[in-house]
């Protein structure tokens, strides 16, 4: 089988180009973070590098340092914002692993003792809730 390649029409590439809306919480030259529209818990945030790669397997290693520096920054901010007990950080590679959007991304999900994750790519959250949560995370990141 030929190696799977990057498709620049994937939904996160469109978000990066501003072609479709997102609830953004952080942006710099290399990285964008925004709310997952089907959160597995309140405050579920995605962090993506701006450089195109399908997933971790084909990524240029130089994109990973800046990406994970922001994963840590956002993980700290969501933990504080939502008063979480912990934070799950997840990243999927290829369909067999559960990947559904083929632009490298890292999931950050606040966790609470005894509360299971909601299903992956489950129910769409109300835009006003996503906007409110994004605002809270942006505020925590600016402190
Ligand atoms: P993965 O299975 O790791 O590829 O997960 C893709 C994630 O993207 C899922 O958690 C979806 O809920 C989320 N998602 C899909 N479309 C959008 C979108 N337009 N904006 C934000 N998150 C999205």
Automatic annotation (TrEMBL):
Positions of the HIT domain: 11-118
Database matches in InterPro entries: HINT, Histidine_triad_HIT, HIT-like, HIT-like_sf
Motif Histidine triad motif: positions: 103-107
Active-site residues (renumbered): 105
CDD domains hit by this protein: HINT_subgroup (cd01277)
GO molecular function ontology, one term from the record: catalytic activity
Gene3D superfamilies in the cross-refs: HIT-like
One Pfam match: HIT
Single GO biological process annotation from the record: nucleotide metabolic process
Name assigned to this protein: HIT family protein
Species of origin: Mesorhizobium helmanticense
């Amino acid at each position: 089988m030929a190696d799977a390649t990057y498709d620049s029409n994937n939904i996160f590439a469109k978000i990066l180009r501003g072609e479709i809306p997102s609830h953004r919480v952080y942006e710099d030259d290399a990285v964008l973070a925004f709310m997952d529209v089907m959160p597995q818990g309140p405050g579920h945030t995605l962090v993506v590098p701006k450089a195109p790669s399908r997933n971790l397997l084909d990524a240029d290693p130089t994109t990973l340092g800046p990406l994970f520096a922001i994963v840590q920054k956002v993980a700290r901010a969501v933990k504080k914002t939502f008063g979480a007990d912990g934070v799950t950080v997840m990243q999927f590679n290829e369909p067999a692993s559960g990947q559904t959007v083929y632009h490298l991304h890292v999931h950050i999900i606040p966790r609470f003792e005894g509360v299971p994750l909601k299903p992956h790519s489950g129910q769409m959250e109300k835009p006003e809730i996503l906007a409110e949560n994004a605002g809270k995370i942006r505020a925590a990141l600016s402190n």
